[in-house]
Amino acid sequence: MRETNATRATPATTTKHRYWLCCVVAMVMSTAQAAETPWSYCAPSPAADLAPVAGEDLQNNSMRFTADMISKEGVEYRLRGKVIGERGVQRLEAERLFYNEQTDQARAEGDVRYTVGNRLLTGDAANLQLDNDTGQFSPARFWLTDKHIRGKADSVTLLGKSVTELQGAQFTTCDEGDSAWLLKASSLRLDTLANEGIARHARIEFMHVPIFYFPYMSFPLQGRKTGFLVPSFGESNVAGSELSVPWYWNIAPHRDATFTPRFMTRRGVLLQGEFRYLNERSRGQLDVAQLPNDRVFGADRSALTLRHTGEHGKGWRSRVDYRYASDRDYLNDFGNQLATSSLTHLERRGELNYQAENWRASVLLQGYQTLDKSLPATSRPYQRLPQLQFSMNPWSGFAGLEWALNAEAVQFDRAEGVIGTRWDVQPSVAWPYREAAGFLLPKFSLRHTQYTLQNNDPLADAKPARSLPLFSIDSGLIFERDLSASGRAVRQTLEPRLFYLYVPKKEQDDLIVDEAGISRVFDSSLPLFGFDRLFRENRFNGADRVGDANQLSTALSTRFLDAQGRELLSASLGRIFYFQDREVTLPGAAPETDTASHWLAELKSQWTATTRVRSSLQWDSKASELARATASWRYQHRKRVLRLGYRFDREKLRQVDVAGIWPISQRWRVVGRWLRSTRDHTTLETLKGIEYESCCWSMRIVQRSYRVNAADEELSDSIWFQLELKGLTSFGRKVESLLARDILTP
């Protein structure tokens, strides 16, 4: 017959064993990488299903004991046979338990098993001093099922509420019977009060081969701690063999820095530094790099990047973006991206914005570093020192009229040539009609621009001005119908739209004239002709040119929406019809005489959750040929990604882009990318690699060849290798960042 009884235990009984368990968790989490990796290849843990008991206060309930037999000799309770003690989320099991109620000592023997929530500790024997939270398990095994961690130690010694020592400790995230990797330490001291862990003679083994050894290692139990991070290494024909050894400085809870010497056999030592801060209302990052005496380049090289964003009270926002490079080739050599090869300028900007309920204002300081020194000073971009902008949201007035205002004042500066200040103001009034079935928006505005110039043509006006009226009518209808497609209810819309714009012609070539008598612009340009240009009031960017217009934009769109309103597919077709020539142009450009624009078409589809299609076309009906096009098809499901892309510009480029990650077995995946310029008959980038993933570790090897410039004769080659020990750390170069940029990016 089974007898039951209960003895009182202090609340410390619950917490004393949890210290070392929490410390091990903190140790693992402090060294683990941020990537979230599922344990899909792992078997269920033998310590699974350790759910906590709900509804009990851990600190205010006594431990309840049951056993086959309970006896008492003097002040000592003796429990034998299936001893179980429970309280809240903790559970203690043993074959024998001896408890002295006077000294508050407990000794457990035989298959000791102690669980706290998802954590389990087992041992042959345990001696506990409950009043001062000391004791020892010898030997001990542990499982942390929520982190998929298991390990063992020759002994676990509790030295009070904050200090735990483990002798002969090791742990892993691999399944039982699999020790693909292990972290071993002869001794491990964990001090939760000092937030410090100290491991002596620690080593990491992979496939039973030691790969790293640390005679002494100190690490934080929670959060971050100053010290060395895991080195990374790689190989490329630009830098040669390279090794990076980062050192982390935990300055404060909201500030840190990383210093990384990058040893390159071909070029020397690149010293890199990163400083980050995260305040209550601001955040930012500063990156600096210095390469003394680059052995290939033959000179010192450096770079700097500063990014800052801030929120300074309700409605206030700030932003700083500053970049510097010692030379243009720095981006080619160390940027490793095709996009950096075409950069001729690096932007520096600082801005402050305020957003109120009905209006907004901003201040901008903007400058550029010219990387291409061959550009003449008069061809380099202007600096804005500063630019002030103000705009008011449309507000309703008499008879349903909507009033709005946009204003700007900007000082343009440059080392040579004409400079000056420009004021631009555009008030507008509209009389809108909006209903569910359509809308009609007639609008009238007046745009006035005033200049104050310096270093201009002495015979030209130093304070030229321009005033122009603009009139537009925007209108559209929305037709809907319900239908069934692919076995589900779908709503289709048909949306015709007409946009008429009239702007009278006014000569503007004499607004800004330099000392040589040549017409200039501060910031106006002609953007690429896209679908959004069908409904713009000015075909130019910037305020130095306001295009003359007497035109009608026509567009027809259709959308397919599911029952939740999610857009499954949208398609649009549009064109502008011109009723007069466009004689206002940028300096040196000829008037536009076509009676109609190119046809524009757009298609977006995500009919299924795994497939996405996007395409845009610009058709030149006059020449009966394609002027510009982009097309992309993307499939992504679980660990399968396949992306096809094509970019075409009749005057500039023709590129084919194929990329993907695809499993060839349960644990092996191949990765690849091929980017080719069919116009130049040149491969711009190839990426070939393979991945292996098991329960507790993964490996990635990628070979990348690329040209930073399509005109380069030779490809730059690099090899990326990464070994990840799940739940611990990773070694080598961060292959995930390369895959995210070249393959996973939509």
Describe the structure.
The protein has 746 residues and is mainly β. It has a domain at 12-185: lipopolysaccharide transport protein A fold, CATH 2.60.450.10. Helices cover 5% and strands 57% of the residues. The protein is built from four helices and 45 strands. The strands form two sheets. The chain has a 26-stranded antiparallel β-barrel. The protein has a six-stranded antiparallel barrel with strand order 6-7-10-11-9-8. A hairpin with a 4-residue loop joins strand 12 (181-191) and strand 13. The longest helix is centred in the N-terminal third of the chain and has 20 residues, at 12-31. It is elongated, with a radius of gyration of 35 Å. Mean pLDDT is 85; it is low at 1-37 and 51-60.
What's a concise summary of this model?
This protein has 746 residues and is mainly beta. It has a domain at 12-185: lipopolysaccharide transport protein A fold, CATH 2.60.450. The protein is built from four helices and 45 strands.
| CATH uppermost class of the domain at 12-185 | Mainly Beta
Question: On the 0-100 scale, what is the average pLDDT?
Answer: 85
Radius of gyration: 35 Å
CATH topology value of the domain at 12-185: lipopolysaccharide transport protein A fold
Q: Characterize the largest beta sheet: strand count, sense, and whether it forms a barrel.
A: 26 strands, antiparallel, barrel
Give me the secondary-structure category.
mainly beta
Instruction: Indicate the CATH architecture of the domain at 12-185.
Output: Sandwich
| Cα separation of the termini | 69 Å
Number of strands: 45
Strand content bin: over 45%
